[in-house]
Amino acid sequence: MSTQAIDVIFYIAILIMSVVIHEISHGFMAEKLGDNTARVAGRLTLNPIKHLDLFGSIILPVLLYLSAGFAFGWAKPVPYNPNNLRNKRYGTVAVASAGVLANLFIALLFGLIIRLAPYFGLAPFDSFAVLPFYKIMIDIVFINIALATFNLIPIPPLDGSKILFNLLPGSIYRVSDFLERYALIFLVIFIVFFSNYLYPILAFIFHLVTGLRL
User: Fold this and answer.
1) What distances in angstroms separate CA 206 from CA 15, 39, 140, one per listed residue?
2) Is pLDDT of 126 > 60?
3) In Å, what is the CA distance from 17 to each residue of 13, 14, 96, 143, 200?
């Protein structure tokens, strides 16, 4: 098996587990705020089979990785009923934010490990980034930054749309309704024409978190 194939396998495996954590974070937050739909549906589990979306979790990430050198994706959304939340409006914002915050926490945690590793003699200062174990940690940080950033885009069904439209006045619902109606079209347009513009943003955040440059 070629080195590139191995890199793709590890990258996709990290991506899948990261999106799984993202989704179950939504479910746990919803449960904390009064809705147990995700638990009843059996979705509060780290078993990736319960969460995989064939296109969003596997096909799209592989295509993006091979064409652009980085990838993002999604899993099947964890179900929840906003009507069961103690505060429907701000509860929805909290549930949507939970997945993004989970990815940011993972990125910051492994970014801190990367920064501290040379000081504890776990790797030399000048070359630790090329060691296999630290290459995996770098991928973990980058993927979770990418997931958090991508999901903040205000296009349904991404979390950014739920956060934004629940914080804006109710009169904006027509815009929200329009975006939801043509969500797939807008999402495909963004991925095809604008995803490459995300890379400089991701590289900048990655540098802030790890101190390394891509």
Assistant:
1) 16, 34, 11
2) no
3) 6, 5, 18, 10, 24
Q: Of 16, 23, 73, 202, which one is the catalytic site residue?
A: 23
CA-CA distance, 21 to 5, in Å (whole number)? 24
CB 135 within 8 A of CB 117: no
Average pLDDT, the chain: 84
Q: Is 180 a catalytic residue?
A: no
In whole angstroms, what is the distance from residue 78 CA to residue 5 CA? 30
**Cβ atoms of 30 and 37 closer than 8 Å:** yes
**DSSP states of 83-143:** GGSSSHHHHHHHHHHHHHHHHHHHHHHHHHHHHHGGGGTSS-TTTGGGSHHHHHHHHHHHH
